[in-house]
Design brief:
Length: 153
């Protein structure tokens, strides 16, 4: 259905291309789910000022897992394009797993006595607000600008 505007799917000469495109679309669709998870937790960790770990995890998962695995699956194992996309997807899954694990560890560090809801914790852009009550956050957060840095008064 997605390739019909670009390729005559009824022509028997195009059948191998259509089959490959269908497989690639399914692999890409499956990889997008994990890519969304990875991007979500990357953004959440960046909001907690954990950008260095996020960068290192992305470098590790793509350059040390995804690229070599894509090469091995695509060329060494002779899986071709499916191997290249599959290796990339495995790199994305590894990155999503690493960032999800880091977020779980960070969220466990939230003390129970902070009286902060998960929504406030997740959306807070001010690191000083993590361990204060919601009433304190509302009044004190006004003194912070972008990236949680104090505004010079």
């Amino acid at each position: 259905m997605f390739i019909m505007p670009f390729l005559d799917t009824k022509d028997t000469n195009n059948r191998p291309t259509v089959l490959l495109a269908e497989k690639l679309l399914l692999l890409t669709f499956a990889g997008q789910i994990f890519d969304a998870v990875e991007n979500t937790f990357s953004g959440a960790l960046s909001g907690c000022y954990d950008t260095k770990f996020t960068m290192l995890a992305s470098l590790f998962s793509m350059w040390l897992v995804g690229v070599p695995l894509s090469y091995c699956m695509g060329f060494t194992c002779e899986l071709g394009t499916l191997g290249l996309v599959g290796g990339y997807n495995i790199g994305v899954v590894v990155g999503a797993a690493i960032l999800t694990h880091r977020w779980v560890l960070k969220s466990k560090a939230l003390p129970e006595e902070s009286n902060m809801s998960w929504k406030q914790f997740f959306l807070s852009s001010c690191p000083q607000c993590f361990f204060k009550t919601p009433a304190q956050n509302d009044t004190e957060h006004m003194n912070y600008g972008t990236l949680g840095r104090p505004i010079n008064q």
